[in-house]
Every structure is written in structure tokens, then in C-alpha cells.
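User: Sequence recovery, please. Input:
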């Protein structure tokens, strides 16, 4: 059974930091590209950051220079370090694992940034 479990969300003041984690089980983690998405109320889910299986990373323009995605294949975990948080970063953050036609989602973790 595949599980992606996010953790690390919470309430933080603007300018603060949070580190999200997504622990995967039931998959060969090193084969998968790992993404972080977010969805704010009333908005579509958007791609925030990607860590490919070879370690390359990509970011949405809105988070470049503030967020860092990383992965630890030995721990089957992907991280999202979020610095200089802004109220507009408030959303539910989801991790996604994808490989070939396979695509799995976590349940999400809430991040709320107060002004």
C-alpha cells in the first residue's frame, strides 16, 4: 500500500520559516520524481517545487529564492524548506510522487502565514 504522509505545517508569522516533510512508503522512492503542490482557498492547485530522481530541482517563480526542495532517498523522504514566508503562501501543501504512469498524493498539511 502506497502512503505519502506530510508533516510540518502550522501557523507562522510573515517572515518566518517552516520545514515540511513527506515520508513515502510502498514505493521505490528513488525512481520517483517528487513534487510539492499547494492549494489556497478558492484557487487551483499549483506546482511549487520539483525534485527529480537525479536530484535536479525546479521552482515556481513565486517561491524562487525562498523555498528549497530536497530529498533523502535513504529515508524515503522529501522536504520543503520555506523561508521568508508571506501571507500569500497560506495554503494546504501536498506532496506528489510520480513515475511513468504512476502518480500518488499525500493528504496535505496546512500552512498559515499571518501578517
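Assistant: Recovered sequence (115 residues):
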Amino acid at each position: 500500500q502506497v502512503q505519502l504522509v506530510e508533516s510540518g505545517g502550522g501557523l507562522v508569522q510573515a517572515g518566518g520559516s517552516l520545514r515540511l516533510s513527506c515520508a513515502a512508503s510502498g514505493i521505490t522512492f528513488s525512481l520517483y520524481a517528487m513534487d510539492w503542490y499547494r492549494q489556497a482557498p478558492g484557487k487551483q492547485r499549483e506546482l511549487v517545487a520539483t525534485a527529480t530522481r537525479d536530484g535536479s530541482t525546479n521552482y515556481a517563480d513565486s517561491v524562487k529564492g525562498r523555498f528549497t526542495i530536497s530529498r533523502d532517498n535513504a529515508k524515503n523522504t522529501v522536504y520543503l524548506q520555506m523561508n521568508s514566508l508571506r501571507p500569500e503562501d497560506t495554503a494546504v501543501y501536498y506532496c506528489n510522487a510520480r513515475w511513468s504512469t504512476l502518480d500518488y498524493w499525500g493528504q496535505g498539511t496546512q500552512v498559515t502565514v499571518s501578517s
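The two ends are 40 Å apart (CA to CA).
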